[in-house]
Amino acid sequence: MLVIIIILIPVTQSNNNSVSYDDISKISKFDNGSTVYAGDQVIDKNNVNKYPTVSNLGYLFGQIGSGDLITSFFSVATGAVPIPATDIVVGNVTDGGVVEDFDGPGHIEITNNTIKVIAPDDLIYGYLTPYYQAVKTSTGVDIVNNKTNETVRHINGDDINNDTLDSDRVNTDQFLYWYNRAAEGSTYTMEYGLAGFSDNRSMITPEELKEQFPDAYNYAIHYPNDCAVIIYQNNIEEKLVSSTYTYLDSHPQYNDANREYNAKQFVTAWNGTVIPSDAYGCGREDVGFSAVPESEAESGMATHGVCPPARSLREAVMALGFSLPIGMDSGRDAVLYGYSPSTGIKIHNTLDYPMKIIMWTEGSGAGMEIHTEIYELIPKSAVNSTNSTNSTSNTTY
Question: Of the N and C termini of the chain, which has fewer Cβ atoms inside 10 Å?
Answer without folding.
Answer: N
